[in-house]
Amino acid sequence: LLTEPSGAPVEGALVTMLDAAGATRATALTRHDGSFHLRGPAAGRYRVLARRLGFAPATSAWVDVGDARPVAVTMRVRWL
Predict the structure, then answer these.
(1) Interior CA angle at 50 toward 10 and 45, to 5°?
(2) Which residues, in sequence order, are CB contacts of 21 under 8 Å at separation 6+?
(3) How many CB atoms lie within 10 A of CB 17?
(4) What is the rounded (10 degree) CA torsion for 42, 48, 49, 54?
(5) 74: nearest Cα among 17, 29, 43, 34
(6) 8 A C-beta contact, residue 1 and residue 9
(7) What are the beta bridge partners of residue 51?
(8) Which of 15, 24, 39, 78 is most deeply packed, by most CB within 10 A?
(9) Do 77 and 50 contact (CB within 8 A), yes or no?
């Protein structure tokens, strides 16, 4: 889930799943409610990078992804 500081959802942001080497593994756009779904290529450790015009880029903490279970990531971006 991607939100701005007020808690409002951020629609239309590009979210990118990055592996430990910084390589892109998946991308998606956030929906009207700020939600997004990324499917990683394999279990592992990833970060999520969020970018949208008018907002500063934001990177999540490391997220451990298993083989089958979804993992929730909540991020806040700030206005530029």
Answers:
(1) 130
(2) none
(3) 24
(4) 130
(5) 34
(6) yes
(7) 14
(8) 15
(9) yes
Q: Quick one: CA dihedral 33, 1, 40, 12, positive or negative?
A: positive
Q: Are 72 and 1 in contact (CB under 8 A)?
A: yes
Q: For residue 47, what pLDDT is reported? A: 97
Q: What is the mean pLDDT of residues 15-44?
A: 95
Per-residue pLDDT of 27-39, as tens digits, reads: 999 999 999 999 8
Match 């700020």 to its residue by tokens: 34
Q: For residues 11 and 9, what is the distance between their CA atoms, to the nearest angstrom?
A: 6
- d(CA 32, CA 42) in angstroms, rounded, equals 28
- Of the candidates 35, 77, 74, the one whose C-alpha atom is nearest the C-alpha of residue 54 is 77
